[in-house]
Design brief:
Elements (H helix, E strand, L loop, with lengths): L9 H11 E2 L2 E2 L7 H9 L7 E4 H13 L3 H10 L6 H4 L1 H7 L28 E5 L1 H11 L7 H13 L7 H15 L7 H8 L7 H13 L16 H8 L5
Antiparallel strand pairs: 1-2, 3-4
Length: about 250
């Protein structure tokens, strides 16, 4: 079964990517021409700067988590593997990072001098003029970077929920099996670099993308990836809970 057509508007995606990145890397002073920005905003790839309170952020993140299921997040991750659509891959880490977030009001941190942070979640009391566009750029370019950032998590899951649920192909499932088999066959004492090399031939990805994929699987509880691989670093039960239907 061929992959579904990419639902992302190609022109809007190009506007987003070229705002922050050119052939030489990051752009120091990113600017988007107004008409192009309006087009990308209409396609839900770029956004106005955001100001919100800690309490509003927590509520938004919890709503985003509850707006998708673990199954949908896992299927999106799998559907990214043969297509290299990294923006689909990202939500696995975001969903995992929000798994334990509970409703709470801002209370100043008291263990040190940083009373401007919440004592429960260590987030700021107020976020001002946050650039959501760079977060979405990172989602498309790298499969996400700030997977321990609650605002990134919320945006990531909200945007996934807006898409038609992706359907992994047989090719996706085959790549997923290869990735997981490579992890399961890692040897005690392997370094993270050795584990990354083991994955190199399992999917189309550069070194940074493989590192990012492993980080997502780590966040999701599939593997631990400390300094050295241990016998219990691969969590087969977690793999079954996330991907069981695709591995049959």
């Amino acid at each position: 079964m061929p992959a579904d057509p990419d639902p992302i508007d190609a022109k809007a995606k190009q506007i987003l990517l070229r705002t922050y990145w050119r052939s030489g890397g990051w752009i120091d002073d990113p600017v988007t021409e107004p008409a192009a920005l309006a087009y990308a905003k209409d396609k839900r790839l770029m956004f106005d700067a955001l100001t919100l309170s800690h309490d509003a952020l927590v509520a938004r993140a919890i709503a985003a988590r509850e707006g998708v299921s673990q199954q949908r997040v896992a299927l999106a991750f799998a559907a990214s593997l043969s297509t290299r659509r990294l923006y689909l891959r990202s939500a696995l880490g975001s969903y995992a990072n929000l798994a334990e977030l509970r409703p709470h009001a801002f209370t100043p941190r008291t263990v040190d001098s940083m009373a401007y942070l919440c004592g429960t979640c260590a987030k700021l009391e107020q976020l001002n003029d946050v650039d959501l566009n760079v977060l979405n750029f990172e989602r498309f370019k790298f499969g996400g970077v700030r997977h321990e950032d609650v605002l990134y998590n919320a945006l990531d899951l909200e945007l996934l929920a807006e898409l038609e649920a992706p359907t992994p192909t047989a090719s996706d499932a085959a790549v997923l099996r290869d990735v997981l088999n490579a992890l399961a066959s890692s040897e005690v004492g392997d370094t993270p670099a050795a584990v990354r090399r083991r994955l190199k031939g399992t999917l189309k990805a550069n070194k940074d993308e493989i590192a990012g994929l492993l980080e997502l699987l780590r966040l999701a509880g599939v593997c631990t990836l400390d300094n050295r691989w241990k016998a219990d670093d691969y969590n087969a039960d977690r793999v079954h809970a996330l991907f069981g239907d695709l591995l049959r």
